[in-house]
């Protein structure tokens, strides 16, 4: 029996690792496209990382200028989705968003093989449930500590899975599985993100968040510990900014404004910037010729990297 309990404990830990975690960082800010400053007078590293993604931009920095231009020409062909010979703002915006979502794709790819047990390119709810929870849901493990917590996690995961499963067939495509793992990235999942946030913080289960629950989610004082200044600031934010109808609570709409703030679309701004800088005939779209004439704005090379290093050294003198 002790051995069974030990095995059960190990599986509980595995389930915690595999199941969808509760939201640790409440506010879903849209990440910037690069850690670099966006200042073209000091080089185009921001543009390179925005256009290619951070890791791919590094590979271009090792190429000759001719190799970089050749690879850029092939990328332009991929961006031109309708094959009309022009890159529109919509096509460039889609490309940049795609490049910046690679970290999500890598996360999904990492977990995909764990759940797609029959390797049919889809993940059924039963596959996910059995992989994550199946081992310890049997009757012989009723005495496992925190079993009720994991049953609650199972119900939460099932609701999220069914919400992500847009066609309701009980099977997640890769896109739907991505929505399951990263719901904040999908408009149709945002109501669920808000619902889960309220459930996490709403300790008295009245369907809304009061000031004590709001602060308690961020700060749990030790005995006799004085409340730090940042907590006082958060109290002020709750009353002055979060609780817009001034009823003393955050409802779902107010939580949505808090955790899903409307923000600048960095990819949209970058697409507009690149088109503005390279669109010589000002027709609001760019050709491969216009892009290659300004190739060093889109991609780096050994030459551009060396030139930017010289600029940095000059500025430091």
Topology:
Blueprint: H1 2-18, H2 45-52, H3 54-60, H4 65-79, E1 86-87, H5 89-100, H6 102-115, E2 123-124, H7 125-132, H8 147-164, E3 171-172, H9 174-181, H10 190-201, E4 209-210, H11 211-216, H12 229-242, E5 249-250, H13 252-259, H14 266-278, E6 286-287, H15 288-293, H16 295-298, H17 302-316
Antiparallel strand pairs: 1-6, 2-3, 4-5
What does this entry look like structurally?
- By secondary structure, the protein is mostly helical.
- The protein contains 17 helices and six strands.
- It has helices at residues 2-18, 45-52, 54-60, 65-79, 89-100, 102-115, 125-132, 147-164, 174-181, 190-201, 211-216, 229-242, 252-259, 266-278, 288-293, 295-298, 302-316, and strands at residues 86-87, 123-124, 171-172, 209-210, 249-250, 286-287.
- It has a two-stranded antiparallel sheet with strand order 1-6.
- Helix 2 packs across helix 3, helix 6 crosses helix 9 (174-181) and helix 10 packs across helix 13.
- Mean pLDDT is 82; it is low at 1-25 and 304-317.
